[in-house]
Amino acid sequence: MSPATAAPIVPDPAPIPANERERLQAVEDYRLAGTGREPAFDRLTDFAAELFDVPMALINIIGADIQCMRGATGVDLLSTTRDIAICAHTIMSDRLLVLPDISADQRFCNFPHVGGEPHLRFYAGAPLLMDGQFAVGSLCLLDTRPRAFSARERALLERLARNAVDVIALRVERFAAEQQREEVAKERQRLSHAIGHLAQGVALFDRDSRLALWNEAFARLLGAEGLERGAAAGALFAPLRPHPEAPDAPDALAGLVAAQSPVAQLDLARADGTILDARRQATADEQFVVTLRDVTAARQTARLKDELVSTVSHELRTPLTAITGTLELLGAGAAGGLPDKAGQLIGIAAKNAERLRMLVDDLLDMDKLQAGKMRFDLARCELAPLLREAEAQNRFFAQRFEVSLRLALPEEDIAVRADASRLLQVLANLLSNAAKFSPRGGTVLLSLEREGEAARISVSDQGPGVPLHFRERLFTRFAQAPGERPAGHTGTGLGLAISKAIVEAHGGTIALEEASAPGDAPSLAPRHAGATFAVRLPLAGPADGA
Amino acid sequence: MPEPTPEPIRVLYVDDEPDLRQIATFALQLDPGIAVESCASGRAALAHAAQWQPALILLDMMMPDLDGLATRRLLLENPATAAIPVAFVTAAARTHERAQLEAAGAIAIIAKPLDYTRLAQLVREMLGRPEP
After folding, report:
1. Interchain CB contact of B125 with A (< 8 Å)
2. Which of A16, A88, A527, B14 could form a disulfide bond with B45, CB atoms 3.0-4.6 angstroms apart?
C-alpha cells in the first residue's frame, strides 16, 4: 500500500436515536419519506438563508439510511447516505447542534462535503420534533466560512424550526383531507355507477326536498331532460298525475315529495300513459329516496284480470239468476200447481242452483279479499238498526229450517265505523250457519253489547257446537265440519274465511266462543251445547261523525 | 154494484237480459194488481216510459250503451218522465256505488239476485200501495 495514496474515508455509522422505530413511523405518518423538493419547504429555507445571511439552508429528513433534502436553498443535492449526514446527529437531541467550524470537529472533518467541495465550515441545525418527541429531521444552515452563532440567532432558528414543524403538520392534514375527498369522490362514483345501471329509477332528495343524486333511469322514467342538482321535488313530479285519479290523490302526490310524510307508495301516470310505481323511503338523516318503476304492463295485467273477474262474475251470475228465479217461481206456483214429485225435483234444482250462486259470489269475494281489492266504504254505523236489518233479511232463510231468530239489543246506542253492507254480509253468514246447525224449533240469538271500547255482536245457536278438532281450521278456506252436514246445507266453506277477512279489515276480531267441547268428548259435554260466534269491532270515535 | 177494479200498478222493467226480463215479468204478474212491460235497453225505456207513463221503473245498472245511471239522467231531463220513480237493480257486490246511486235520486236500490217470489210485494212496499 502506497503511503501517497490517501486512505479511503470510511465514516462511522450514523448514531441511532433510542426511539428510532417510532421516529421512522413518524416520517411515514407525516408523509416525509421519499426524495424531492416541496415548494413550501423551499420557501422556508429561502427565508432562513436570507434571515441568517448564509449561502445554504436545508430541510433534511432522516430516513432509515438516507437523508433527503426536501427543502433546499443553495444546494442541488437531493439526498445523501445517512452516515455522512450531520443532521443525523442533530436528531439525537431536542436541542440545536451548532458547529462554528466543522473542520475542527473530529466527527465531521472527514465528511466528503467538509473535506472536499464545497468545503463546508459552518453548521447550525435545529431538530424537527413532531409531536414533541419524534425528530424526523432538521432545519439547518450551512456556510463555507466558519462563523459565530449568537444566542439571539439560536432562538430565531429554534422558532423557525417550530414553524417548519407546523407546516409539516398542516401539510399532512391537507393530505388527509385530499385523500378523504378522493375517497368520497370514488365512493360517489361507485355508487352512481351502481345505481346508474339499475332499471329502477332512484333519486335522493335532501331535507329541503331538493334533488341531490339520481340515476339515468330516474330521469328517463320521469321523462325529464337535463335534471339538475338542487331541483325542487315538487316541480320534478308536477307533470305526473296520481293514478288512478282520486279525490285525495293531489295530497298523496304532495306527500310523496315532502321532506316528512307518511306517504310510502303511489302509482303515478305520465302524460303518455306510462304508469310508474313510486316509492318513498326516508333515510336516517331526514333525507329521502324516491324509487320509480315502470309498472304499466303489470297494472294493465291487473286491470285485465279485474275485468275478467267482473265479466265472469256477470256472465255466471246472470244465467244462475235466471235458473234460480225460474225455479223459485215454478215452486211458488207461478205456472200453476205442480205434482208432488215435480215440486220435490224443482226444490232440489233450486237448492243446488242457489248453492252454485253462493259459491260464485264467495269465490269472487275471496278473490277480491286476497288481492286486497275489496272496497270498504267506511262510515259511522249504528249497530242496533243494522242488527234489526240483518234479522229481517235472514228471517225467511231461518224459517226454512224451522228456526226462529231473536234479537237482544241494549238500550244505549252503539256505533262503529264500518261498511254496513259488508257487516250485513258477515251477519248473514253467521246467522245462516247458526240456522243450518240448529235443531228444528230452535232459536238463534243475535245480540249486541258494549264491551269496553269495543262493540260485541254475537250469534248463538242451540246446535251441536263445533268439534274440537275442527276449530283450528274453522276460519280457513273451504273448511267444513266433516260429517255434520245438516239437511239443506248449502255452504261453500268460504263464508267464515270471508267473514274473518271482512271483520279484520274493520280492525275487529271474530271468534268462536264455546264453553264445552261436544263431539270429541260426548260423555262430558251436554248434547246441545250450541256455538257462539262473537264479532268485536272498535267503537266509532267522536271524529267519525254522526 | 161491484166496486170498479182499481187501475193496475204499471211497472216498467228494464234489463238487457231477455230471460231475466221474462222471469221478472212472470214474477210481477203473480200480482193481478200489477201490469208489467219490459224494455231491453235504456234507450227503449226512455221512449216507452214517456208514452206508457209507468208508476215505477225497475232499472238494471249494468247495460250496454246506456247504463242505469245514464238512463236515469236522461229520464230526468225529459219532463214527461222526470217524475216517474226509479229503483235501481244492481249486483250486491257493487254496493260501493250505493252513494252514487242514492245521489241519482232512486227510491230504492234492489240488490241482485232478486227474490222473485217477493218481487211484487217489494214493488207495492216501495210505492206504498199495499194489496187491497
Report:
1. no
2. B14
